[in-house]
## 1
Amino acid sequence: MNDIDHLVKAIDPAPRAPERGPGARELRAEIMATEPARSRPFRVRTRGFVLAGAATALAAAGAVGIGLPATGPATEYANAAVAIKKAADHFTVTVTDPAADRERFEEAFRAVGLNVTVKIVPVAPGKEGELIGPVVPGGFRWHGSVGVQTVRPCASAFCGKVWLPSDFPGRVVFGIGRQAAAGEAYVRDDLATDSECMTGYPTHGRTVEAVRAEVLRRGAKIGYRLLWSSPGGGWYEQSVPAERIKADWIVAGCRPYSSDTMEVYVKPGPGAGPAPDPRTVATPEWYDD
């Protein structure tokens, strides 16, 4: 947990409000995991999925945009928006038309037995069509794990593996990335690596003064978030005005906030005051109802 830049490649389990970290998947795992042994990428702990019967699988496999199977969950389903196929311990998801109505995505998830809400959300350039999440409102309390792994190469808009127990009784929220309008805030997913944040300029460990100068030199606006350590372990964030930030405090990382604004995450330094109650600084997220 000493180097936040090493945390962004970990799996993104279900957040549980209000303690939300800066969006880095590993931070979320530390803050919000509900099991003593936390999930890690590609090491998904599961006791097995509920499989559709053989007759159901044969009847429903390969259904293409034709209504949901009446006899039970399918093992695979496809329509003009997305194709989903159930494997032994995960689902493969291929997004073919990210501009499709969200109802088409939800239709496919329901066909394979998952209670999924899909939201079409603005994302940074290059992330259009990507599957974001999964998020379990209220927290994930079930066997196994939840997460998404992008698969490349991919001939479609997005190819990936989704870990989600097929017998999970709760509702899950996914986002499908769309092109953001000029100045529109991107959906917050990961704390960007330095190469994604400002090419050629590592921000982690630098002073606020140095990073601010570089952001302004590049013609962008800047926003700030304080990154507080949670007493129970993990981190949570607080959006603050520029006057709250001291020039010699240290930057933990950054994220493009929109097409014209960079968001900088700062470790509270001397004079920052007591940490706020996480419940008072929580802000609505894209997956909130």
Note: Confidence is low (pLDDT under 50) at residues 1-70.
## 2
Amino acid sequence: MEKKILVPTNFSKQSWNALIFAMNLYKKHPCTFYLINVYQSQGFLSEAIPLGRKNSDENSEKETSEKGLDRMMKGLGFRKENPKHQFETISIQDNLINGIQDNADKLGIDLIILGAKGDSAGINVSHDNKISKISEEIEKCPVLVIPEDYELKTEKDLEIVFPSNFRIPFKQKELIPLVELSNSLGASVRVLYINTENKPLSPEQEEIKGELAKHFSDIPFAFHNLTQTTPSTGVHIFIESRECDLLALYQRKQGFFSRLFQHKRSNELNFDPRLPVLILKEYE
């Protein structure tokens, strides 16, 4: 089945790198990549590679946007073509979040891929940047964030860390992007439980854990436990100790995801992963 991938771009290096990462990730799959530039959105073009003199005139913004997308298409033309991949461009004047959400809904997008500047994913809401806003506010469509400086170590067995507290059941549809990512990379999923209270799982948690095992029955996976640590510190320690390759987070309005970004104590880790992060979305 064809995949529909939305790649927001501001014509920066990290946007281009995210597109190339996505193309390699889905090199065996039929895909349509939608390259979207939302112009006249405050600050989103500020880090772009200059394409000419910029002013507040709408026609100039539109021209800049269309020229930038045309450059990307020409750049793709110089690469060895993958017959399974198709590309379309979208230039739209809108609020950044609305522009991405509306097109994700309208086109039936399976995954949004973002390129983050520097060596971290930049999804921590304390950063108050465009990446954190998109990953936080986009609904009903998973988001994969790729740090600009990240290189996947294909010479090793890849691992995707998936933290869970086993308190709320998952819907199969919500986990499909993680299962597909595991299949695409040949990576195992490491389900990580942070036992902050050092107590055994309740019967309800055991049931949810069992259901999760059924959801992952077609991919390699394993359960892991850490005790006497906070969620953010525990995830960080696990990633570092095992040299994990990707992190998957399930985003609910209330739950484990939001706890990763709470800093009630001054010694709490500023959680900002230095690896690609797949953000799974809750479905009503």
Note: The chain has eight helices and ten strands.
## 3
Amino acid sequence: MDAFTINALQERIDNYLQLAAQVRVDDSPDTIHDFRIASRSVLAVEPLLRATSKTRKWRKPMSRWLKALNQLRDLQVMQERLGKNPELNRELEAGIQAELWAWGVLRPKIADKAFRKRLAASLEHFFQHCEDHPGYFTVTALALWWKTLGKVQARLAAVKQDEPATLHRLRIAVKNLRYLVNTLRHIGAIPTDANAGLKHWHDLLGDIQDRQVAESWLDSNRADRRLSIQQLAESAALCTQFNEEQYQFQSILIRLDATVTACLIAIDHQ
């Protein structure tokens, strides 16, 4: 693991900590969005650090803070899509403000001194172990890559058209894969264009999930049934698109696996 890779990984952590400090005083949508991305980027490589130190005491709160923003994000997305309806917009805005209030209670505790100390210790232990054991980074990175990819492939094989939950589980796996790939790109372990095409599938599955969440929310708020039917129709059309293009997704995964595997193995020969 060379100095560039170490510095790039440290930069990833530093970016998260900077955004954690910012989000404590700034609840704007852009800051919250950036904080969510930074959180997922660190969590994508947490299993690497877990192998050389105890990460639970910073991983669990990081995951909890990220999860606390899920409902806020869903409401904001729905407001963008459905907010032209005055009555719905009032309901959505009320929900958003309630989520922001709950977030305001939580955010002063984010990334405190003890959290930062534990995170820094995990990173230091990992870097030291890589230095003491040449080739360790490659072995652990490959194991993480194959585990993450394997989960995507398993959930892809389990997708059923009439069970929306199977697509939701696949979306989560694809999201984890994409953040891992982006982090490996950022630290220079794989080429910058290695994830070509992956964003499309992440976005497509996200669009399906957004419509399913909207349909559920509209039903629970007893909104005009026609709006719920529209969400279901749009979701069904996107599911059909996904099914028709699955072979392209499989091709991307095969190509991506070959690229990542070759690049990680090559690190030991540089």
Note: Residues 164-186 form the longest helix (23 residues).
## 4
Amino acid sequence: MSKTVLGVYNSSDEVVRAIEEFQNQGYSVNDMSIIANTADTPSSIEEETGVTSQEISSNNQPQPEEHQGFLASLFTPFENRMYQNDDGRDTYYDHLVAQGISNADALKYEEDINSGMVLLLAERGQAGVSTAGGMSTGTIAREQTGLEEDTLDREKQRSLQLREEQLDVDKQRVQTGEVEVKKEVVNEEETVNVPVQHEEVYVERRAVDKTEADTTTPIGEDETIRVPIVEEKVEVTKKPVVTEELVIGKKQVTETQQVTENVKREEAKVTKDGEASINETTADSDRIDSDRL
């Protein structure tokens, strides 16, 4: 059965995460295999996931069995006889083409393998989806975009959605303080000037012209004049009076606070290979930032 490339990945960790994702989509570890130009990387992946490797030798020497998967070791002699160039050297290109990969994609995948990347393959038509499941790591296989170089349909269009994070700010009412208003008694000394009246007795001596005295009253008898004296006394009383009124209430005050947070956004990166031409257009200039392209 022919194979399809599920993805191209930069590290063993990315491959392991991708295998787990494809298993969740229905793939079996027996349906998947990997190709890399080093023996250590496939060996560690095989030990962790159980997915076998398809390592081939560039000098027609079979890989040691400790660096191959169990199933791969069974097929290595058969593959070495089938996938050789005229000079007797095996190539990743021939190996991929023999498994149903297109010539153009096989050349590019060969470059990826030689640069140290790891290919993840599966039997074509097995369970699961035909893309890399929207994983954030690795590179989606070229076959799975539906835009192979030798089968490009000019009438077909594909869309790529760019996403970004936006701040969602929520407000909560919380008590931040409390104001207490109460009355307390303050003692102070107050002085008031009050005018008061009192009576005084005065004695005025006057000279008289008469020399004759009253003969009816003998000299020597007591004669007393009593004069009552009255004065005003100050009496102090206190009474409460209202001097001030406090009105207590609450009012809403609006102020602006700045919230700063890091957000992520996706940007489109357009690259071209060879003499390919790109014609970029903008449908809505008010919503699209041309600097992101």
Note: Helices lie at 12-24, 40-49, 70-82, 92-98, 103-114.
